[in-house]
Amino acid sequence: MILWLPSFFLVGMAVFNGYPRLITTNDGIGSLRYAISAGKAKPLLALVRGFILLYPIPGWILHWLMVLSYPFLTAWAIGTALDTTETA
Predict the structure, then answer these.
(1) Are 52 and 59 in contact (CB under 8 A)?
(2) What gap in Å lies between CA 31 and CA 19, rounded to an integer?
(3) 85 φ, ψ to 5°?
(4) What does the pLDDT look like over 15-63, one tens digit per residue?
(5) Which of 5, 40, 54, 80 is the most exposed place for a label (fewest CB within 10 A)?
(6) CA separation, residue 8 to residues 13, 20, 21, 75 (Å)
(7) Inter-axis angle of helices 28-41 and 4-13, to 10 degrees?
């Protein structure tokens, strides 16, 4: 049971802080350093985020919301990125 706390913290900081930084900078070590510093700055927030992702009930609900909202987000992103000056 004691391993749940570090896993909540690590998942919360890596998924919500490190992964977006990795996508934007394409620097794995830099994004990991940023995730660790952001996680140490707000440890309770990292724990809560990790709990939401790893605990079965809120994690299940969150993942279903992401799966069901993905087509709408994709359509919105394509619609906003569409070049209106280009003709078919």
Answers:
(1) yes
(2) 7
(3) -85, -15
(4) 888 888 888 888 889 988 988 898 899 989 888 888 887 887 777 787 7
(5) 80
(6) 9, 18, 19, 32
(7) 120
